[in-house]
Amino acid sequence: MWDYSEKVKEHFFSPRNSGVLDEANGVGDVGSISCGDALRLMLKVDPESERITDARFQTFGCGSAIASSSALTEIVKGKTLDEALKVTNQDIADYLDGLPPEKMHCSVMGREALHAAIANYRGEVWKDDHEEGALVCKCFAIDAVLIEETIRANNLSTVEQITNYTKAGGSCATCHEGIEEILTKVAGERCTAPVVEAKPALVNGKPKLTNYQRMRKIEEVIEEIRPQLQRDHGDIEIVEVEGRNIYVKLQGACHGCMMEQATLGGIQSKLVEALNEMVRVLPVSQHKPTGH
Amino acid sequence: MKPIYFDNNATTACDPGVVEAMLPFFTEQFGNASSMHSFGNKVGQALKEARARVQELLGAEHDSEIVFTSCGTESNSAAIYSALKAQPERNAIITTVVEHPAILSVCDQLEKEGVTIHRLKVDKRGRLDLDAYKALLSPRIALVTSMWANNESGTIFPIEQMAGMAHEAGVMFHTDAVQAVGKVPIDLKNSTIGMLSLSGHKLHAPKGIGVLYLRRGLRFRPFLRGGHQERGRRAGTENSASIVGLGVACAQAKEHMAFENTEVKRLRDKLEVGILAQVPRAFATGDTANRLPNTASIAFEFVEGEAILLLLNKQGIAASSGSACTSGSLEPSHVMRAMGIPYTAAHGTIRFSLSRYNTEAEVDRVIAAVPPIIAQLRKISPYWGEKGPSEQPETDFAPQYA
After folding, report:
1. Which residue among A9, A58, A132 places its CB closest to the CB of B382?
2. Residue in A with minimal Cα distance to B318
3. Which domain holds residue A186?
4. Residue of A62, A106, A175, A191 with catalytic role
5. Contact B307 A108 (CB under 8 A)
6. In Å, how far is B280's CA from the nearest CA of chain A?
7. DSSP character at residue B400
8. What are the distances in angstroms from CA B318 to CA B9, B11, B268, B273, B354?
9. B47 to A89, A241, B186: CA distances (angstroms)
């Protein structure tokens, strides 16, 4: 059973302003049937004063969705459109004496319906900028999409950093496994950058390179790749070239990354193409090649 | 008004006879069954008797095939992990898309660890395609694990037949039978089922007690190692009070099996017919011709399940829903979705699950209570409104997706 406040229950059992508003001149339809929430907000706006004189709703949804819709209509009635646009989802939740974290999206849906209805009145197109993922941190109502975006935007690599940026995982700590899974997923995406598509390994007919040209070429290819790795907080360094074996050292984020093999594979195919010969790119993290 | 409990697939009330039988094991019969003295001896005797009663209900050939665990979930995990550990050369599992999370989550995790998971689909009535199943059976499969009866729709799978097919292919077979035990006749000695999970609290025994049936001779690796309890197959001091309670509950279940399939079934049918006769745009989900006798799963289109439950609860009626909101996830029930039930109906699915303690008067009260609740919610639904149901719900109301 959800821990609904008395105010939520009261607005659910006796919703205010439910039903169709025939004289509506601003209508906002938002929600997602897959998530089980959908709301139509109907506003009657006085064109002179741009004041909302009446508001009604129709909602398909759970108890808190219906209560949030009811609260929303009560909040916006009498407000000008500009005042109404300042209403946040937290205002809706506060009006109801709070919502359980799993149910905060009901208040978000309310705010979106309001923006959509006002855009509709003004003849504008409203665009939803909010994507919702599975709820990860139940203490602070943080979903997977927000965590993923924060990791990407700030190059985060630990649960602790994510807690500092989003609060997720900062209270009961039971969602740390879920956060670690998201970290692994995003890290996997990062290190795929240098992987190139398979191309013919050898192009015949090119003149054979001199030893000096060959070394220069290897260096050029590595220099070309470095910025991509550095963008992912990694780096690469050539340690030694022994015949067909090119020993490199991966550093930073790339070192030990689960995509290390894929990264090396990508570099190898670039080198094969540039040198017009079969070479192997090998990491030296554990076994440094002995000198000549 | 006395509350009405129609949520017996979630859990059941402990039978008073079960509680009475358990009480001495909290007080004078506190001994450890493993001890040499008389304190332990009496407990040991009681466990033996309980084991025989479970054996009897399941139709198992030997009492040593009954392993007491802490719950159905533990039994399920023990079965799956054992099958993989005992047959390291096999690295795949066949299961179904409609399993309980106690199976699905384990399989999801194993998949991440490199095990191949085949999930059998169901048709719109919740039935399996046995040809597809047969095609998957191979020497790579470590285990087939399939529920006997679905907890949400009540749909019964042809488990004995499936176990036979697995047996022919030389594949181990496990069934999660927590919803079926006590409602469906089970005769393990005349089947080829290798392992079966049972949960006490689904049949009027207390919570915290389960059973893993383990066919004699089946290769097994314990989930919990430690002492020699349960012949070394499940370590940990026996939960003697609960085991005794489960024994009594199993004896009662055997006694009431016929009643469940006649009287409880009659009440369930009356409830379902009574509601569907009054509420338009509602339908029963699952394989209605072949399901548990106590379960009615009704989808009410264009309204949301949690809202229905809250209004039912206000009238003292307890049921459950497959809606996303009741689970805290963003998706409605995986069982309803697997049957291809549209979102507009899947969110409005209500499960009424009865027991032998429910009465005709309760059924009548629920039949009277449901239609006004659905009407009240539909009145404020954008898919329904004042004018009646939307003929093209996808186009009449097409919200911008958040």
Report:
1. A58
2. A1
3. 135-190
4. A106
5. no
6. 17
7. E
8. 12, 12, 15, 19, 11
9. 57, 72, 22
Residue A126 Cα distances to A29, A71, A129, A233, angstroms: 10, 22, 9, 38
Least CB–CB distance from B306: residue in A13, A63, A135:
A63
Residues A49, A111: one domain? Answer: yes
A-chain residues near B330 (CB < 8 A):
34-36, 132, 134-135
Q: Does A144 lie at the interface with B, CB-CB under 8 angstroms? A: no
- CATH number of residue A35's parent domain: 3.90.1010.10
Which pLDDT tens digit goes with each residue over A121-171?
Answer: 999 988 776 667 788 888 887 889 889 988 988 889 999 999 888 888 988
What is the pLDDT, as a whole number, of residue A270? 86
Check residue A126 and report its DSSP letter: P
Q: Which domain-ending residue is among A121, A147, A167?
A: A121
Mean pLDDT per 10-residue interval, chain B, length 402 residues: 94 97 95 88 95 98 97 98 97 97 96 97 97 97 98 97 98 98 97 98 98 97 96 96 98 98 98 97 96 97 93 96 66 90 91 97 98 95 78 70 45
Contact, B147 vs B177, CB < 8 A? yes
Strand partners, A240: A247
Q: CA–CA separation, B61 vs B55, rounded Å?
A: 7
- Residues in B closer than 8 angstroms to A138, CB to CB, are 328
Crossing angle, helix A211-231 and helix A260-275, to 10 degrees?
150
- A63 in contact with B at a CB cutoff of 8 Å? yes
What is the nearest CA distance from A160 to chain B, expressed in angstroms? 24
Residue A255 pLDDT level (bands cut at 50, 70, 90):
low
Residues in chain B with CB shorter than 8 Å from the CB of A9 are 310
Residue A196 within a domain: no
Residues of A in contact with B401 (CB under 8 A): 31-32, 128
**Residue A148's domain is classified under what CATH number?**
1.10.10.1100
Query: How many domains are there within chain A?
Result: 3
Could you tell me which residue, A46 or A262, shows the higher pLDDT?
A46
Residues in chain A closer than 8 A to B397 (CB atoms): 29, 38, 40
pLDDT of residue B127: 97
pTM of the model: 0.80
Query: Considering only alpha carbons, which residue of chain A is nearest residue B319?
Result: A1
Choose among A12, A30, A105: nearest Cβ to B400: A30
Helices B38-58, B240-259: inter-axial angle, 10-degree rounding: 30
Structural domains in chain B, CATH included, are 4-8+257-386 (3.90.1150.10), 16-253 (3.40.640.10)
Report the pLDDT value the prediction gives residue A203, as an integer from 0 to 100.
Answer: 44
Chain A, chain B: beta-carbon pairs less than 8 Å apart: 118
Q: Are residues A175 and A217 in the same domain?
A: no
